[in-house]
Amino acid sequence: MKHVVAVLWQTGLLIVAAFAGFVTGMVVPSIRIQRVVSQSATHIRTYDFNWILAVLLVFVVLLAVGAILKRFREVAITATIALVITIAGLALFTQIGIKDVSFS
Q1: pLDDT on residue 85
Q2: Using alpha carbons only, what angle is made at residue 65 by residues 48 and 2, rounded to the nearest 5 degrees?
Q3: pLDDT score recorded for residue 29
Q4: What is the mean pLDDT of residues 40-47?
Q5: Cα separation of 61 and 93, whole Å?
Q6: H-helix or E-strand containing 35?
Q7: Which of 13, 41, 54, 71 has the most CB atoms around its CB within 10 Å?
């Protein structure tokens, strides 16, 4: 039961980190990491990677805390499950990171 609670807590933390990374990339354009997915004369679609980097940063911090507390195996399993749930949930069920710009 405590592993389920740990996975839920870490998933929530990673989701908050994803939205914080996405908002940070929008507010501070100089740190925005993006790729143009498609482009036409009147339309550009880009994908921002800031949210993935923020999630991976929090994942590494969780692993470091687990290593410091000498519970690396437990933390590695629960954090990896939370990472997979977060990335799959946000990438498949939302369009976080995708931006459309139309020109007239």
Answers
A1: 95
A2: 95
A3: 82
A4: 83
A5: 26
A6: strand 34-39
A7: 54
